[in-house]
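=== Structure Prediction Worksheet ===
Name of assembly: unnamed complex
Input type: mixed (protein and possibly other molecules)
Chain count: two
Listed entries:
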Amino acid sequence: GQNIDQPTEMTATEGAIVQINCTYQTSGFNGLFWYQQHAGEAPTFLSYNVLDGLEEKGRFSSFLSRSKGYSYLLLKELQMKDSASYLCAGLDSNYQLIWGAGTKLIIKP
Amino acid sequence: DTGVSQNPRHKITKRGQNVTFRCDPISEHNRLYWYRQTLGQGPEFLTYFQNEAQLEKSRLLSDRFSAERPKGSFSTLEIQRTEQGDSAMYLCASSNQGRGGYTFGSGTRLTVV
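=== Predicted Assembly ===
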């Protein structure tokens, strides 16, 4: 079957660093996405990894290991506005996204 | 192009009524997806179109749900005889042949009372 696992909730402090992990099992693999979703809003695209390694984009970085079926999203210099849910999604062989339930990130001052 | 547009943003309806939502995708995108999302969950796949063809429907999509994309542009999602369990955010997304990131609309929040 296809499955995406990520923690339900994480808490971090403003200015700190947090890593949100995701493990995936998909039928075929065409990449791994991270989306950010604020409460009551639609998901917005953060990153896409299809090759192993780290992709850095400002304060956000995303890592992929295809052999381990593992990805993480790294958020640096956390700001209060980063409080949101972070959704991990795998793109399967039919180019359909398989979604995790999301990780709710709570930032404390 | 202003991205993916969904209407209405909010809909409150009485149980048993029919509702219809509309999605206008990014014009050059040929794939259009409908998802349902409830609080604390990731988006739940409902159906998708490639151009005007409906290629897949989720087993979770009961016969009360129907979607169309008659000209390969905008799409409608209709729910007949709504139930309280249908209350959710209905998200539309589009992509170009499924490659790259999906672009989501703002969603339609449905409340069935």
